[in-house]
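Fig. S4 source data, part A: sequence.
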Amino acid sequence: MPIVRISRVLGLTPHETSTLLWCWFFIFSLFAAYYVLRPIRDEMGSAGGVDTLAWLFTGTLLAMLALNPLFGWLVQRLPREKFIPLSYQFFSLKLTAFATLLEFGPTDWQVWIGPTFFIWTSVFNLFVASVFWSYAADTFSQAQGKRFFGFLSAGATLGGILGSWLTTKLILSIDRNGLLILSVLFLQLSIICFYRVSRKISVDAGDDPQRDIIGGSALAGMHRVMQSSYLAGISCFILLNSIITTLLYFHQASIAHLEWSDMASRTAFFASINFSINSTTLLLQLLLTARMMKRLGVGITLSTLPLVSVLGCTVLALQPSATTLTWVQVMRRASNFAFAKPAREVLFTTLEREDRYKAKNFIDTVIYRAGDQIGSWLYAGMRRLSAPLSSILFFAAALSIAGFTLALW
């Protein structure tokens, strides 16, 4: 049986199996919900060109700055059994509102609905994933994280594959509005999975949910990042990665805007890239992630992403083409999801509980989107100065070398 095989490979005890499998379905549902939305977001963002994208990233950063203290306030006052599903229900309501506006809103409203949806989805994807991984770091020990987080990342990948495939197949038949409702359904499924995990943990540990209130300050996440060299190091690594990702994303958006003029074709193109990335990621996760974490350690596994980025950006600078860009995007993002992401999440298992939710959420949202902002204006500024693409890519390669050194540290 598949579950028996999984238990043997991961070295699961009967006590761990149920919790891990419900966590797996939890993150699978979350990423299916997001990857249904991602191609729609990318199409709306690319429709206005690169200059518009830079402003959209500014709006995303401002939205993150506004929501982070609100989330800190929820963590301060509510147990995780309440603030996690409450956060996800907030995003479900917003999705439903967007579907309603796209279906019934006047035509002239579409001018602002598209940019607002891009900003909201860019907040949504980082926020819901960060909350899940905070919960996972709070649920499993560091030793368990090394065994389990690659498996959980594979669940995220499979969810992404399903979401991308559904968007590719259904965009012409049920349009964007139907896909938004489909994303809501996946998000509701993730909430059900969360309750199953939470109930299992509470029964096993005999916890009183009210004792689970973390407390502290609503702004503790930002303060802790400034005070801790460990958290500052993680923040710098994520900042560098985000800048490089954005530089490549903007180049991808420019190509899509030039190649296709209609919404459905651009959406299908972005969905196909996401499908390739997730398929490659899954292969790497199944074959290499757990072995690398066990044999080489967290530092080496984490450094794989910047190493791939150095090679990819250099090759793209020397051989610029749409095909090369696609391959670089696939290999780089696959390395991120297969190696860097699970290794990075293990780093948070050693932190205090308040840091796992507040500091981690600040890093995963505000710091990450700050990198997006820096990358977006760098790309726009260098293009306005008529800088050749190769200079942008060599700059990204230099940032990757810094990230490689930081990962090992």
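Fig. S4 source data, part B ends here. The mean pLDDT is 82.
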